């Protein structure tokens, strides 16, 4: 009965949006969290949509590259951007929402027959000298990785899409792919065969405390603080009524899949 009631509540939120005030948020292609190619625009997008719907707002997602999404919210052209992890320096420009979801973790992917080894507790990037690593443009993989890349200690080839890197890895044109784990698994499951999946293994890049994703609400936008408060209120509502847990279960069950365009 609880599942049925939550299902109909979800339908109510979705189909009553024609009468709701709109909130415009910038985001990027970051599946399974946010994507205009995935049902409900992704896992985090559905949480945000339902939280705002609970307080009588509808969300309009505008998809841009990550750096552009950040800038549009920073200058106040849009009220906010999602999803972002917490960084102290961003507090000058943004209000942080309550945590929306657990943040993805970075991992190294290699072929099973690779002799690659890595100790996440030490993060000795000296050990990666001479190894070709594939990353994605504009992604930040942590201070120590960035420092090693910027200093020239490690060789990183960056492309626009992690799938390009996995193709290179399977063709042995890269030694290692660094990626956020859930993002990588989504693309691997949707782009490559199971036989490809069996050819790779992964290593966590670092050991760290659990982190979260947030909405960044612009301090330059006159509605930034108000929308932060509205979202936080709506998030509390969908956590109390069970809808938040239903969405999380959908993610675990693999229901945020790519749809035909």
TrEMBL record:
Keyword Signal: yes
Pfam assignment, any one: SBP_bac_3
Keyword Signal (UniProt): yes
InterPro entries named in the record: Solute-binding_3/MltF_N (IPR001638)
Domain Solute-binding protein family 3/N-terminal positions: 27-249
Gene3D superfamilies noted in UniProt: Periplasmic binding protein-like II
Keyword tags: Signal
Superkingdom of the source species: Bacteria
UniProt signal peptide: 1-21
Protein name (Swiss-Prot/TrEMBL): Solute-binding protein family 3/N-terminal domain-containing protein
The species this protein was found in: Halobacteriovorax marinus
